[in-house]
Design goal:
11 helices; 4-stranded antiparallel sheet; elongated; alpha+beta; two-stranded parallel ribbon
Length: 512
């Protein structure tokens, strides 16, 4: 008996050593090179640093601040973003998906360990008197009891690295899920900033309308006085009254837009409609630009942009899946064993004669499958090729988005400066027209025309201020900033499924 146990132990040790020193089939993942420029391109002809512009904000190569929204110096915006990041239902859903990926990794990782199961059974039975097998020895004349407690164990030896490739693929899927969560967080923060900028812009529009309404009402009152004195005509009074109504008509739609934006911010925070009404009801200026816009280096984009990181993780998983498909061509060796006690009387279970055991390896080798394994391998190779193309496309798209965002930001600043000059000139024109009308040197139609021009340019300037702020938000989003902060904290169990043995993911393996 001791000799048998020694042979079993020796066999287990040899098979374990073989499993630990086995090769890993399939290609090893090599990080792809992201094709990006050495420096960001800024069109100097229309640069935000051109002499024709009045603002001093310019794009620089310094390190991008992950908390880019603080560059707007708006405490309310920073507070909203912090709360949205912690409460967004979209971010929470992405966190749940990350936890699912971690759980799936734990399931896959369990294949590297032996499986041990315990069982116990009791049966009251009688054998057939005319049957072929009577384990009771009672010739089928009497009932008997059968007690059988025990356990069994099995362990598939990963000789070719198929399971290791499955774990590598699962690890890559965790990385993809983590970066997808970062992508959701980044998009949510940018949307919060966009809605906030638009809300302040609508409030500015309402303020402009109210100012122009006061001017129009003053003009109407002046026209009525002049009409009573016989200086102006009824036509002038009708035109002035129509101007008041026209300006008033803009208020309901702007107010509706204001409410919708407050509700949009409440939704991003996972709160009920109008939850932020009291907090955001009072007007505040549209956030101003920072004097410097740090864009970082192009070489850093692949590490910051979550979509590029996701594409790389998908390529990694697709590469590992090729190794899984190759491993299916090789034999599977499973070491199994069982130990049971069996007795017809419960009191006999503790005797040595009731023991039963068995141990030994099992070999399973594919011989003919109608081309299924070859088709599976071809599928995995094609999926890896698609993932590689998707990575290249994602990098190129990111480059385009950054370049477009920089161009939009430059153009928005120039547009904003020109409108600011137009507003200043229209204000001077209106002041002069009102003085001339009061002195009887011009008719009221001239005053109306100048006031319409002023109102139009003021509203256009407010919209341009919003567009300028939003273009900067879009630039920060294109640069991939915002997810590097510590909020919301990563789920505690999300990475718990990742085993520490990941040194082979990027390392070299022997090939079978």
């Amino acid at each position: 008996m001791s000799l048998l146990i020694s042979r079993i132990a020796l066999s287990v040790c040899l098979l374990t050593v073989a499993a630990l020193t086995a090769c890993t089939v399939g290609p090893d993942f090599q990080r792809p090179v992201a094709a990006l420029p050495d420096r960001w391109h800024v069109d100097e002809k229309h640069s935000i640093a051109a002499p024709s512009t009045k603002t001093s904000s310019r794009i620089v190569d310094s390190t991008l601040d992950p908390r880019w929204w603080e560059a707007f110096h708006d405490a309310e915006l920073s507070s909203l973003i912090d709360r949205v990041a912690a409460s967004s239902l979209d971010v929470k859903a992405a966190t749940a998906r990350l936890m699912q990926a971690g759980a799936a990794r734990r399931v896959t990782g369990s294949d590297t360990a032996p499986s041990v199961n315990g069982a116990a059974s009791y049966q009251h039975a009688r054998s057939s008197q005319n049957g072929l097998l009577d384990i009771s020895g009672l010739d089928g004349k009497h009932d008997y009891n059968l007690w059988r407690p025990g356990f069994d164990a099995s362990w598939e030896l990963d000789l070719w690295g198929r399971v290791r490739r499955e774990i590598e693929s699962a690890d890559a899927n965790i990385e993809a899920s983590a970066d997808l969560r970062r992508d959701v967080l980044l998009a949510t923060l940018a949307e919060t900033a966009d809605d906030y900028m638009e809300l302040r812009g609508v409030q500015a529009q309402l303020h402009i309308v109210e100012q122009n309404l006061q001017i129009a009402r003053h003009s109407l009152e002046l026209t009525r006085i002049r009409f009573a004195d016989g200086i102006s005509t009824r036509l002038d009074v009708a035109e002035a009254s129509a101007q008041v109504s026209t300006i008033e008509a803009q208020q309901p739609s702007l107010e509706s837009r204001r409410v919708r934006l407050v509700n949009a911010l409440s939704f991003l925070m996972g709160a009920a409609p109008r939850s932020l009404e009291s907090e955001l009801h009072d007007s505040a200026p549209i956030p101003s630009m920072s004097s410097r816009v740090p864009a970082g280096l192009p070489s850093e984009l692949a590490e910051r942009r979550p979509d590029i990181r996701v594409a790389e993780a998908h390529l990694h998983a697709a590469t590992a899946n090729i190794g899984v498909a190759i491993g299916d061509f090789y034999p599977r060796v499973t070491l199994s064993g069982e130990f049971n006690l069996q007795a017809m009387h419960f009191g006999d279970l503790d005797t040595w004669g009731s023991r039963m055991f068995g141990v030994g390896p099992a070999l399973n080798m594919p011989l003919f499958d109608g081309g299924r394994l070859k088709g599976q391998l071809a599928l995995r190779n094609a999926q890896q090729e698609e993932a590689a193309i998707a990575f290249q496309r994602t990098v190129l798209n990111a480059w385009h988005e950054v370049d477009d965002a920089m161009s939009d930001y430059n153009a928005s600043q120039i547009h904003h400066d020109l409108l600011a000059e137009a507003v200043a000139q229209n204000q001077i024109a209106l002041d002069n027209a009102q003085r001339q009308y009061g002195a009887g040197a011009t008719d009221f139609l001239n005053v109306l025309a100048v006031q319409k021009d002023l109102l139009g340019t003021q509203q256009a300037l407010a919209s341009s201020s919003v567009d300028l702020a939003v273009s900067l938000v879009n630039l920060y989003k294109a640069l991939g900033g915002g997810w590097q902060g510590a909020f919301p904290a990563s789920p505690g169990g999300a990475n718990a499924g990742k085993m520490t043995g990941m040194s082979n993911i990027h390392g070299e393996h022997d090939h079978a």
